[in-house]
Amino acid sequence: MIKFFRHIRKRLISESKFSKYLLYAIGEIILVVIGILIALQINNWNEARKERNREINYLQNVRADLTKEVENNKSFASYRFSKAQACSTLLNGNTPASIQNVEEYTNRYEQVFIWNTFQPNNNTFKELLSSGNMSLITNDSIKNALLELDKRYAEIATGEEHMRREFEAYLYDTHVENIAALGFFDLKKPAYGFPARLRIEDIPRSQHDKLIEDARWQHNNEVFKNGLRLALMNNSFLAGIHKDLLVFIETIIRLIETEIAE
Predict the structure, then answer these.
(1) What is the pLDDT of residues 153-163, one digit of tens each?
(2) Staple partner for 198: which of 138, 187, 202, 247, CB 3.0–4.6 Å?
(3) Which residue ranges of the chain lie beneath pLDDT 50?
């Protein structure tokens, strides 16, 4: 009987040790799993932090581009409006009757003739698109606003291309094919950049009548006047787009600054 109880005692002790070992092993496994989960969480956190840093860097660069765009659009709004004003002056002015009138008339139509194309400062946005990193921008309001801004830039480019064809057909061709061009530039002396501008007293009097005649013809030519009317409308339209973009761009900048500060 004593041997039986000793056997039972040994068995219980053995089972107790096994239970302890089992619990220990389970505890070790749990600790390993927790360690793995913590490591994964830390790794995910580090990756998220890296992604956020990349996003902030892109947002800062976009903001820098947009800050330049404020001045760029302000300049082009003024540029387009001044061309529309010049068209209106030419359309509503009197027929040139003196060399002084011709000088003023020439200054105005040359102001209309000068051609500049709008070039947006959107290098960071283009990089986001080309690199496939647009998904880094987590704020949908900012992302959608940038896409809308790009759409408006495309509208400006389309408007400029349309206006360019009208300039060539109604203004440039009509002018070059029918009158003496560049009459107020010194074409005897090549220069780096535009040749020197001639004053009235620099132009031989023998040429005055020809300049007056040409200016009168152009002023009354319906093809040229139609070109001025179209130029007035198109430049006014584009000036309005640039003016509206100022407000839109400043709104995007504020959105970005709020996002960066979070």
Answers:
(1) 999 999 999 99
(2) 202
(3) 4-5, 8, 12
197, HSE (Cβ side, Cα atoms, 13 Å): 5
Q: Hey, what are 205's tokens? A: 């009097």
Query: Alpha-carbon torsion 32, 36, 39, 45, what sign?
Result: negative
From CA 225, how far away is CA 219, in angstroms rounded? 7
Please state the pTM of the whole predicted model: 0.81
| Residue 206 · residue 142 · CB < 8 Å | no
In whole angstroms, give the CA distance from residue 229 to residue 171. 11
In angstroms, the CA 63 to CA 68 distance is 9
Q: Which of 100, 87, 125 is nearest to 234 (CA)?
A: 87
The greatest distance separating any two alpha carbons of the chain, rounded to the nearest whole angstrom, comes to 148
What is the tens place of the pLDDT at every residue in 197-211? 999 999 999 999 999
The Cα 77–Cα 57 span in angstroms is: 30
